[in-house]
Amino acid sequence: MVPVPLHPKRAFERGFNQAELLAEVVAQELNWEWGREVLMRVVHTPPQARLGRRERLSNIQSGVFRAQQPERVRGQPILLIDDVLTSGITCGECARVLQQAGSGPVQVATVATGRVIVV
């Protein structure tokens, strides 16, 4: 289980990462392993909340995320945790990076979404 990461600057400003909090609770309930530092957000981007699809797409491009611990995901199915799924662009890029690092299939779990999206 891997939470969608915040950039360290945004995590510091906010004081928490909501996806990490969700992943921690779900992992404890299911007795699953989860990785806080498996995936890192290495490029600070503007918040996605008020952006349209086109702006979100240009905001989240290749290179925003990096697999920090590829040995932890190699061959493993991944449950990617995010708080809100709107366009699917962020989760799609996270899934792409995890799969490039050698993960198995990536499924997404979220608390809220505006519509059904297959990533």
What do you see in this structure?
By secondary structure, the chain is of the alpha/beta class. Helix content is 36%, strand content 20%. The protein has helices at residues 8-14, 18-30, 53-59, 70-73, 89-100, and strands at residues 2-3, 39-41, 65-67, 78-85, 106-113. 29% of the residues are buried.
List its salient traits.
alpha/beta; Rossmann fold; three-stranded parallel β-sheet; two-stranded antiparallel ribbon; 5 helices
Concise structural overview:
By secondary structure, this protein is an alpha/beta fold. It is built from 5 helices and 5 strands. It has a single domain, classed as Rossmann fold.
The stretches of 5 or more residues where confidence is low (pLDDT under 50) are none
Span of the ends, CA to CA? 16 Å
- Beta strand %: 15-25%
Q: Count the DSSP helices.
A: 5
> How many beta strands in the DSSP annotation?
5
Order of H and E elements: EHHEHEHEHE
In CATH, the topology is named: Rossmann fold
Tell me about the largest β-sheet: 3 strands, parallel
Please state how the strands of the largest beta sheet are arranged side by side: 1-4-5
User: Cα-atom Rg, whole angstroms?
Assistant: 13 Å
Helix content: 25-40%
Coarse shape: globular
The CATH architecture is: 3-Layer(aba) Sandwich
SS-based class: alpha/beta
- How many domains would you count in the coordinates? 1
What's the layout of helices and strands?
Elements: E1 2-3, H1 8-14, H2 18-30, E2 39-41, H3 53-59, E3 65-67, H4 70-73, E4 78-85, H5 89-100, E5 106-113
Parallel strand pairs: 1-4, 4-5
Antiparallel strand pairs: 2-3
